[in-house]
């Protein structure tokens, strides 16, 4: 009885994995900005052929039909986001935009970077309200804005020739001006806590080690040298410098180990974990992967 229940659970999870994989595959193809006739017709043709020869029956046919539907839905949703950029792919030009700095660790050593969502276009014909740009802060504008700040940015905007980059364009900022802040209490607390932890690390370690520790603790690899960044990517360890469920899992495991060593009751330990995990989520910028893992 128990074995059949386990087998049924495995089959159920397997079907969910197939359905989600079909949606992800469609979405990945859609990020290219166009979908060829082959990818539109091929999945449906395979489904019809297998159904005709009796290769798909019962639940198998239902799962295959669901995969087909989710594949095309994923592609359609992704294409919808890419179509506004289709005519501007590969273009570049000077712009002046006002927008909000979003939570992100994207950037690099050669120039400070921040993720920026445009809300108003004041100059240039290339930018659009609502689009997200990765801003490289090269010029004179004072300190790099914090998450939630409202800024006006002037510079050279480049729209990537292909999709799948995670942003709508790259903006080389020659000048930026802080206009205010739209951050709520939680985001302001996240910024203060993050800056405090980063300051403690940088004051106690050499620059190279501090950059690595900051990446591992907070998922912020912007201070890593290009050599170290390439080494992490080549070795497949760059995920250690991305705030995710892995970090939350390590934190909770460490707390459980410490609680057992101190003979803390399990229920009390679970309660004590909540504020610690919430504090880490704040320090990591309240990013979606960390919040999902924390919940």
What characteristics describe this protein?
5-stranded mixed β-barrel; 295 residues; 52% helix; OB fold (Dihydrolipoamide Acetyltransferase, E2P); 3 domains; flat; 5 strands; alpha+beta
Walk me through the structure.
- The protein is α+β, with helices and mostly antiparallel strands.
- It has three domains: 2-84; 89-183, Beta Barrel (OB fold (Dihydrolipoamide Acetyltransferase, E2P)); 187-294, no CATH class.
- The chain has helices at residues 2-30, 37-52, 58-82, 185-204, 207-218, 226-235, 245-261, 266-283, 288-294; strands at residues 92-102, 112-123, 132-137, 149-158, 169-181.
- A five-stranded mixed barrel has the order 1-2-3-5-4.
- Strand 2 (112-123) and strand 3 (132-137) form a beta hairpin.
- The longest helix is centred in the N-terminal third of the chain and has 29 residues, at 2-30.
- It starts with a helix and ends with a helix.
- The mean pLDDT is 77.
